[in-house]
Design brief:
By secondary structure, this protein is α/β, with parallel strands linked by helices. Helices cover 23% and strands 19% of the residues. The chain has one domain (21-268): CNF1/YfiH-like putative cysteine hydrolases. The chain has helices spanning 15-18, 49-63, 142-147, 149-161, 185-194, 217-227, 252-255; strands at residues 23-27, 70-71, 81-83, 105-108, 114-119, 123-129, 134-140, 169-172, 206-207, 214-215, 235-237, 262-268. The strands form 3 sheets. The protein has a 6-stranded mixed beta sheet. A 4-stranded mixed beta sheet has the order 1-12-5-2, with no helix packed on it. It binds zinc ion. Zinc ion is lined by residues 177, 179-180, 241, 243-244.
Length: 273
């Protein structure tokens, strides 16, 4: 038996999304001393499944979502988007359940569903359409970014829910920053190719402080979202770098591939009458 965590934790939230009382969201993070695995909520080997499930329940309770209605996907660094329906509730929630399958973005308009993406440096993006209402959770590493996963999620919300991009709110959570994300030339080449219609604007996501180039995923995705029709005032970026702050965040680059996973949760509150 793994004891329930006793530490009081507060998920990281965006004031932009918190303005909507029917939206529940939050980022989990690394908490030394919390449970058996410092707050890890990923199930991938060699992590402890039981401990991670205890953590998921703990974080969900604090955020105000039902852990038994978590929905996850098998993240593959692509641009596939899945629309989550009421029938999907709980897919990927517990260690013995299967996720909805291979994808890197989940969208839903079903109240009570808890969309969850898992991260250790890759960027979490949460979207809210306050009008429908509807929400999305996106996993955007550099491959997903240049595959256009953020743009694909906005397009999917337009098609599924009639979402107007000018009304969408976006929260870009903690991720490896341009400060630490040293990359090979194939990464910046893929980015420049993906954004070639924007010309020099694409350079906002590239820097070269030393010999190698650095890629800034949050800046890149903010640019993609603006190009998809979101207005800048509706994009909230948390500039925390997970590698610089490895004391507080799981970082693949900083701690290696077997480190834990933090999560980005979002869902619509269930209506009560
Ligand atoms: Zn950094």
């Amino acid at each position: 038996m793994i004891p329930a965590p006793t530490l009081a934790v507060t998920p990281v939230r965006s004031a932009l999304l918190d303005a909507f009382s029917n939206v529940r969201h939050g980022l989990t993070y690394r908490v030394p001393g919390m449970g058996a695995a410092e707050g890890n909520i990923g199930y991938g080997a060699p992590r402890d499944h039981e401990a991670a499930w205890v953590m998921r329940q703990h974080w969900c309770t604090v955020i105000g979502l039902d852990p038994h209605r978590i929905v996850t996907m098998s993240q593959v660094h692509g641009a596939e988007v899945r629309q989550v329906t009421a029938l999907d509730a709980g897919r990927g929630a517990t260690p013995d359940s299967d996720s909805v399958g291979r994808a890197d973005a989940l969208i839903t308009d079903v109240p009570g569903i808890a969309l969850l993406t898992l991260h250790a440096d890759c960027l979490p993006i949460l979207l809210v359409d306050p009008a429908r209402p509807a929400v999305a959770a996106i996993h955007a590493g550099w491959r997903g970014t240049v595959a256009g996963v953020a743009t694909a999620a906005v397009t999917a919300m337009r098609e599924a829910f009639g979402s107007d991009p000018r009304e969408l709110r976006a929260y870009l959570g903690a991720a490896i920053g341009g400060c630490c994300n040293e990359v090979g030339p194939e990464v910046t080449a893929a980015w420049r190719d993906h954004m070639r219609h924007l010309g020099p604007l694409a350079e906002v996501a590239v820097s070269q402080p030393g010999i190698k180039e650095h890629f800034d995923g949050p800046s890149a995705n903010a640019l993609l979202l603006q190009h998809a029709g979101l207005i800048p005032e509706h994009i909230d970026i948390d500039w925390t770098c997970t590698r610089c702050r490895g004391d507080r965040w799981f970082s693949h680059r900083g701690q290696g591939p077997t480190t834990g996973r933090e999560g980005a949760f979002i869902g619509l509150a269930e209506e009560r009458d």
